[in-house]
Amino acid sequence: MTESLVPRIQLNDGYSIPQLGFGVFKVDPGETERIVRDALEVGYRHIDTARIYGNEEGVGRAIAESGIPREELFITTKLWNDDQGTQSVFDAFDRSLERLGLEYLDLYLIHWPTPAQDRYVETWKAFERLRESGRVRSIGVSNFLVPHLERLLAETDVVPVVDQIELHPYHQQPATAAFAAEHDIRIEAWGPLGQGKYPLLELPEVADAAEAHGKTPAQVVIRWHLQRGNIVFPKSNRRERMVENFDVFDFELSEAEMGAITELEREGRVSAHPDEVN
Ligand code: NAD
């Protein structure tokens, strides 16, 4: 099992991203170094963190001690809501990069649009300047819905490379996904396993496919994301699950199996609505 099995998704700025990565939301800062070390040993090369997770330093230590050449890694972090603006963005970026111990970042995201603050356009212009500096290669957004994306495209110059949104079988956000596809913005699916908040892995549409392929229900759901073209980074603290979630390149879901899972859509958001996070 090697990282070379992971397909790369082409971004609209010429860079590419490993389609399968490892997320560290709710990974305890004290355990992050060990957990990310495990993930890198298992073969993950794409790590998704955020300033608000409080674990950038642990991610940085695991990267430094791994000895993996920097160009083989893809590291994402996110600007927290309190740091939106202009100078505050530059300062927050510097601090994130320092905590990660990196010379450059692969992808920097605006974590939430926080529409009540009304600063995401200004923030994005600061992101454009960061990108020009070369210290971040690609810039994107997270939790942006169609109206937020429309405004960004109308008022700024650079099209985000990705929109990282809550996306799993009960909540597939078809309007945002379609808008993104039209504008060459890739979708990153957060909470790809529904954060364990509904019995996704027990649904017959998932369990039957798992049985048919001799795989686990989690592997089926990850496979569904990959075949839909989503970028995913499921999270687990447990090494055996990291291995399981990475072992998804030796089978393919049929059109019927894919369709049955896609039909589970029911606007079943498991976390906050982006307009309500400010
Ligand atoms: P997830 O859907 O990946 O669910 C994680 C939970 O699923 C784990 O706690 C674990 O208990 C369970 N799990 C993992 N592998 C399993 C397996 N093989 N079998 C059974 N259960 C398994 O949810 P997530 O961690 O919230 O999302 C993934 C990543 O997305 C995060 O770590 C983070 O990087 C990112 N994220 C971003 C935002 C955002 O606002 N941009 C919000 C939430 C998460």
Q: Say what oligomer this is.
A: single chain
CATH architecture: Alpha-Beta Barrel
Distance between the termini: 42 Å
The CATH class designation is Alpha Beta
Count of the domains = 1
Tally of alpha and pi helices? 10
- Average pLDDT confidence is 97
In CATH terms, what is the fold-level topology?
Answer: TIM Barrel
Strand tally:
10
Task: List the helices and strands in order.
Answer: EEEHEHEHEHEHEHEHHEHH
Supply the helix-strand structural class. Answer: alpha/beta
Strand order within the widest beta sheet: 3-4-5-6-7-8-9-10
The proportion of strand residues reads 15-25%
- Global outline: globular
How large, in whole angstroms, is the Cα Rg?
Answer: 18 Å
Write the CATH homologous superfamily.
NADP-dependent oxidoreductase domain
Stretches where pLDDT is under 50 for at least 5 consecutive residues are none
> What helical percentage do the residues reach?
25-40%
Bound molecule kinds, no repeats: nicotinamide-adenine-dinucleotide
What secondary-structure arrangement, pairings included, does this model have?
Layout: E1 8-10, E2 16-18, E3 22-23, H1 29-42, E4 46-48, H2 56-66, E5 74-79, H3 87-100, E6 105-110, H4 120-133, E7 136-142, H5 146-155, E8 162-166, H6 174-182, E9 186-190, H7 204-213, H8 217-228, E10 231-232, H9 239-246, H10 255-262
Parallel strand pairs: 3-4, 4-5, 5-6, 6-7, 7-8, 8-9, 9-10
Antiparallel strand pairs: 1-2
Helix pairs in contact: 1-2, 1-9, 2-3, 7-8
The structure holds nicotinamide-adenine-dinucleotide.
